[in-house]
Model the fold of this input.
Amino acid sequence: MTYSKDTFCRIFADEVLKGKSALFIGAGLSAAAGFVDWKGMMRGIADDLKLDIEKEHDLVAIAQYHVNSLNMDRSTLNEILVSEFIRDAQPTENHDLIASLPIETVWTTNYDHLIEKAFERCGKRIDRKYNREHFSRSVRGRDIVLFKMHGDAESPDDVVITKEDYESYELQREFFMRHLQGDLISKTFLFLGFNFMDPNIDYVLGRLRILFGDLKGPHFWIVKRPSPGRHKDEEWEYERRKFQYRIKDLERYGIHAVEIDDYAEITTILRTIQKYVATRSVFISTSASQYEPLGKEKVFQLAASLGEALIQNGYNLVSAMSPGIGDQVVTGAIRACLKSLGQKVEERILLRPFPPHDCSPDEVPATLTFYRRSLISTCSSTIFIAGNKQRSNRIMSAQGVHEEFALTKALGRIPIPLAVSGHAAKEIWDSVQERWDDWGLPPQVQALYQQLADSERNVDQWVQAILDILKAVNEPELAVLENERNQNRCGS
Done:
């Protein structure tokens, strides 16, 4: 069964929200960052062997022929690995979008460090596993387990690249095989930048099918259709036919194709998944050296009540841990988690303190902007409370809060400024009101926004107005996800 892009995005987003998703990343994802593919890496070696790389399909065999010709010396191969994959390439937008998703398990056959850099830029702690020793320990407080099943370029002697490496894989790396089998049974995978030509994957899939019969999955594979422009009519028809056979064959393992015509569509797909996942998360933007016009006690009461209400109503909290008001929001959220059985604080509250400024002064603004963007992108909305700072004995509107508003707008997220708290929040509320039609919000939201500026109301009423706004702006996406979930139950 081939899934449409939109249907796939809804199903996979639902699996992400349930904590049952995993990613498998292949070399295609790194190609956009300038890394060579297998053919590019083997081209020079094939030339040395006096073979035409364009005529060769078994590139693993080319690597083995090279090692054989040097009496099993793989030092030249190692030099190529280090020179090609240990360099200062930067993650692409696709890497950053992946890193922003709350997915805890990622598999890859890639030797490079692009996905690690993307996770680190998002402030996530990685438990990287690429040899036997890594399976005997775990990184405390990890956010991601990254299985590099073919090794890492920083340890070139241990990477899987030759025919002999593949032949001995089950014996030398059985710990990878066991974990992958377990994940394929318990999680919904998305295969990205992967061509299913890896013999290890074929072995795992075949073994699972023998043990468990037809694998229902569903797992998903984003794959580009053969392009008629690249082939003569007869060749294109042949490639198209073979493409359909391959898709049908993978369905035996519960892997379903999501067909695209251009690799640029992958970015759109990942953005859509991110948007669906974001419907359940809210970012808190705040800072305060002064608490007027409401006063410190009332602002703190409001912040704690809001944090508690967000959790109780099914939203996850994302915060950069601003002292004062931010602490109170988190305190209320934790209180709600502790009151409810089965609620894990670490699953409902994402706290990402701003990173230390260990870069040059010129790089600090760009670093903070990227960090703010990575947090806001995981949420459907940003709630603004107060937003001021003291400088030279003067209280000023917080520029960091204004930047978070600009990022909220740029990312297509919804601003919810609590105007009664004053300062940047009031200025943002005024800005939204001045260009109301630009936001495309549901009609009922405008009246709710007015309540956020009404100083005659009380804390409970302001909190309820925020919840009502969240419901109004997220309801269409949540309704679609719920409908998709119900259809999946009926079909299973």
In short: The chain has two domains: 5-35+89-275, 279-479. The domain at 279-479 is CATH 3.40.50.450 (Rossmann fold).
